[in-house]
Amino acid sequence: MNVSEREQLKAALYTIDVDHFKLINDTYGHLVGDECLKQVAARLKSMIRKVDTIARTGGEEFTAVVSGLSRASDAERIAASLLRMFEAPLQLSIGEVGVTVSIGVAVYPDDATDAETLRQLSDEALYRAKREGRNCAAYAYEMRARRYGDLKMWALRAGQ
């Protein structure tokens, strides 16, 4: 995040999870599951600039860091592009397999200024995307707004 801080730009941390991956593994086997993950990685990598970072950080989970954003809405535009890239099925050795992803997004410095908190917020947003039906993106700022709204409602009820 140092470059973004120095240039007074934003960066986004994306936590990306392949929806229902266990079903793919259980239905087609681990070799096809591995092939699926490789193609998912290739698609994600094709959307991320060379100056940014993409890594597989768990079984079917990937993390991307995209820097140099002017506005937080740029992070939303990128997330929408990532979701669209999975509208077409993967071409695997067994044939076409449809795959979707869920995405959690946290934006530096809007949501947090340290990597650990950004990661935690992005993770929380990912699980919110999964709860909301998968194949979508959720944002840390939405959770912050919801928490603020809840606190505001509590204060109103308490007569403050």
Q: Can you lay out the helices and strands and say which pair or pack?
A:
Elements: H1 2-6, E1 10-18, H2 21-28, H3 30-47, E2 53-56, E3 61-69, H4 72-84, E4 90-92, E5 95-97, E6 101-108, H5 115-131, E7 137-139, H6 140-157
Parallel strand pairs: 6-7
Antiparallel strand pairs: 1-3, 1-6, 2-3, 4-5
Report on the structure:
The chain has a five-stranded mixed sheet with strand order 2-3-1-6-7. A two-stranded antiparallel ribbon has the order 4-5. The N and C termini lie far apart (38 Å). Mean pLDDT is 89; it is low at 151-160. It is an alpha+beta fold. The chain has helices at residues 2-6, 21-28, 30-47, 72-84, 115-131, 140-157, and strands at residues 10-18, 53-56, 61-69, 90-92, 95-97, 101-108, 137-139. It is globular and about 45 Å long. 49% of the residues lie in helices and 24% in strands. The chain has a single domain (2-157), classed as Alpha-Beta Plaits (2-Layer Sandwich), CATH 3.30.70.270. α2 (21-28) crosses α3 (30-47). It is built from six helices and seven strands, in the order αβααββαβββαβα.
Give a quick precis of the structure.
The chain is α+β, with helices and mostly antiparallel strands and 160 residues long.
Give the key terms.
single chain, 160 residues, alpha+beta, Alpha-Beta Plaits, five-stranded mixed beta sheet, 7 strands, 49% helix, 24% strand, globular, disordered C terminus
